[in-house]
Amino acid sequence: xxxxxxxxxxxxxxxxxxxxxxxxxxxxxxxxxxxxxxxxxxxxxxxxxxxxxxxxxxxxxxxxxxxxxxxxxxxxxxxxxxxxxxxxxxxxxxxxxxxxxxxxxxxxxxxxxxxxxxxxxxxxxxxxxxxxxxxxxxxxxxxxxxxxxxxxx
Length: 153
Prior knowledge:
By secondary structure, the protein is of the alpha+beta class. The chain contains four helices and six strands; from the N terminus they run αβββααββαβ.
C-alpha cells in the first residue's frame, strides 16, 4: 500500500502556506484578510465584498471567522501538486445567505489546473454553512475570494 502522507517537510511547507493566508488578518475598509502574505513568497488572499452595505456594517469579525473556517478546510483538501509547488490562482464568487448557507458558487477565474480549482471549490463547500450573518445586515453577502497557490497577488 502506498504511503499517502507526504514527507514532513512538505506538510510543514503546506501548513506554513495556509497559515500565511489568514494569520494576523489586517482590516482595510471593512474587509479582512492579508493584502500580502509573505511566507517564502508563496501565498496570500483578501476577500472582496461585492454586496452593497447601506448600513455600514463592520464585517471584519465575521470575515475573520469565515476565513479561519476556510483555511482549516482548504488545508484538508489542498491538492498534492500545490504542496509540491504548483502555482495557480483561483477566483471564486459566492453568496452567503443570512442563515450562513452558501449559494451561487462559481469560479470566475480558473487556474488552468483542475486540481487547484477543485481544491478551492471544495474548501468553500466543506465550510458550508458558515455562521449566520450579523443581524443588522438585512440581505445576503456576496464575496469574491482569490485562492493563490505558491504565488503573490
